[in-house]
Write a structure and sequence with these properties.
This protein is of the alpha/beta class. The protein folds into three domains: about 180 residues, P-loop containing nucleotide triphosphate hydrolases (Rossmann fold, 3-Layer(aba) Sandwich), CATH 3.40.50.300; about 170 residues, Rossmann fold, CATH 3.40.50.300; about 80 residues, no CATH class. About 35% of the residues lie in helices and about 25% in strands. The N and C termini lie far apart (about 65 Å). The structure holds adenosine-5'-triphosphate (ATP) and magnesium ion (MG).
């Protein structure tokens, strides 16, 4: 046996010198990756580094321009995802792509419906139900297979997607940012599933921007930058700072920009805010000009509901809102926007992106008024605004005319954030503003938030990342069981105090 062959045999999956070019972008430039059986291999890199593209080349979604892929020593080249799945390679995509009007089990079996009997062109509902139920029990997923997808929260839909990938009995499973929409409990659940898969001898490829996760579950780490392979190391030899340095290409001394915002008088007063259909109860608080007010709490504590009820997307049972001394209604999103509010939702990938429109169109769409001169839109101003957005957040794109759907996941997020910043809101409501965004770009986003505060605007920001709240906010509201459990000063509080408040009404 020649030595070439032996080295290939050692790895369950080996990708060698993969190249892939899109118009104007060299997405992958000679990238190699080796995944061992029974291990988790983390793939890290800034937004647009090429992580998803590499995985899509493996999975047959994209055709690589050159390079070779070996699965258990055999060279493979999948033409589509069906072929990949048949060969034991499954992938949980960054963007969920599910048939929302169909049931959970329909989604599980899409493209491989079981027949009632061989050669009979009827699918067996019973078999689908039984098999799905069995798998869910095995994985500890508590979902009725007959539930219609659209009736479930995104996090549960994500768990279904994960179960589906597992159901193919795959040897290689790719998780592309699987936890960005999962609750903390579900993250733990996923990690248990991953553990089980490792024991079965699967090779797991895991993509995430959450450093803590990476250090916790991975065995090997590969870092990419600008479409190139940078390093592969055992996770045990790496620290968070070393990974960041490899990703960004320089030392990142500060994770948070210096705070220079001046806090003024009360701008927003909210009294007895309660939800009609949510558990939100009698939340009252004030926010000042120039203040960044954080909202902390566990999943389901009502964090998101505060923003949504205030903005009028979620029905309100009670609540008085005073802006700048004047009573306002914020009866619906349109009304809130007229009152100077803007809301960046948590599920922006599902609700915020106009995929077939280009970046400029996606950027200016909520502030078109500003570019109107008579019946015409001022093209030059729109180009300038988009340029500002691309530069200030370092959106990685060849042009403004590029379709937003061809941007990497994190870069799409930046465009949507830019869209709301351009509406020049008086009160900016942000739900998990840095989710899916790499460490370097997070800094830029914090800076933009603080710039707004510096201009005397008020920012309300929900985040599940406590260091982020402590690093960016002035005060933090802590929600618990739909109620406001307390308000803390970010300068003097600590994680323990916030956790204790978050558990107050649970
Ligand atoms: N279908 C496509 N058409 C054109 N360009 C694309 C396409 N898919 C990806 N790209 C480009 O390839 C580069 C790599 O993108 P990719 O999605 O792989 O990044 P990523 O590392 O997954 O980033 P993120 O962390 O933001 O998800 C980006 O510049 C992106 O704009
Ligand atoms: Mg990606």
């Amino acid at each position: 046996m020649d030595s070439q062959r032996t080295s290939t045999d050692a790895a369950l999956l080996q990708m060698e010198n993969i190249c892939k070019e899109f118009p104007g972008v060299k997405a992958l430039d000679n990238v190699s990756l080796k995944v061992r059986a029974g291990t988790v291999h983390a793939l890290m890199g800034e937004n647009g580094a090429g992580k998803s593209t590499l995985m899509k080349c493996l999975f047959g979604v994209y055709t690589k321009d050159s390079g070779r892929i070996f699965l258990e020593g055999q060279e493979v080249s999948f033409k589509n995802s069906k072929e990949a799945l048949e060969h034991g390679v499954a992938m949980v995509h960054q963007e969920l792509n599910q048939a929302l009007k169909r049931s959970v089990m329909d989604n599980m079996w899409l493209g491989r419906f079981p027949k009632v009997a061989p050669y009979v062109p009827l699918t067996s509902d019973k078999k689908m139900y039984d098999e799905t139920k069995k798998l869910f029990e095995e994985l500890g997923i508590n979902v009725d297979p007959r539930t219609i997808m659209s009736k479930m929260p995104v996090s549960q839909r994500q768990m279904v997607e994960i179960a589906k990938a597992v159901s193919f009995n795959s040897k290689i499973i790719v998780f592309d940012e699987p936890t960005s929409s999962l609750t903390e409990e579900e993250v733990e659940h996923l990690f248990r599933i991953i553990d089980m898969l490792k024991k079965r001898g699967c090779g797991i490829i895991y993509i995430s921007h959450k450093m803590e996760e990476i250090l916790r579950i991975s065995d090997d780490v590969t870092v990419m930058r600008d479409g190139k392979w940078i390093a592969t190391r055992p996770a045990s030899e790496l620290t968070m700072n070393e990974i960041i340095k490899l990703m960004v290409g320089r030392e990142l001394t500060n994770r948070y920009p210096p705070k220079t915002n001046q806090i003024g008088d009360v701008l927003l007063k909210v009294e007895n805010l309660s939800g009609e259909y949510s558990a939100l109860r009698d939340v009252s608080f004030e926010a000042k000009r120039g203040e960044v007010l954080g909202i902390a709490g566990l999943d389901g504590s009502g964090r998101t509901e505060v923003l949504e009820t205030l903005f009028g997307v979620a029905a309100r049972r009670s609540g008085e809102i005073t802006l700048d001394g004047k009573k306002i209604k914020n009866a619906n999103p349109g009304d809130s926007i007229r009152n100077g509010f803007a809301l960046l939702t948590e599920e922006r990938r599902a609700t915020g992106i106009f995929g077939i429109l280009n970046i400029r169109e996606n950027t200016v769409i909520s502030s078109l008024k500003k570019y109107r001169t008579g019946p015409l839109l001022n093209q030059k101003k729109m180009v300038e605004a988009t340029d500002w957005c691309i530069k200030s957040m370092r959106v990685k794109t060849p042009t403004q005319e590029t379709k937003i759907r061809s941007l990497s996941g994190g870069n799409q997020q930046k465009v949507i954030l830019g869209r709301w910043l351009l509406t020049e809101p008086t009160v900016l409501l942000l739900d998990e503003p840095t989710r899916g965004i790499d460490v370097g770009a997070k800094y830029e986003i914090y800076q933009l938030i603080l710039n707004l505060a510096n201009e005397g605007k008020t920012v309300l920001m929900v985040s599940s990342e406590m260091p982020e709240l402590l690093g960016v906010c002035d005060r933090i509201l802590v929600m618990s069981g739909g109620r406001l459990a307390g308000t803390v000063d970010a300068k003097t509080t600590n994680q323990e105090e916030i956790m204790a408040l978050a558990a107050k009404y649970v």
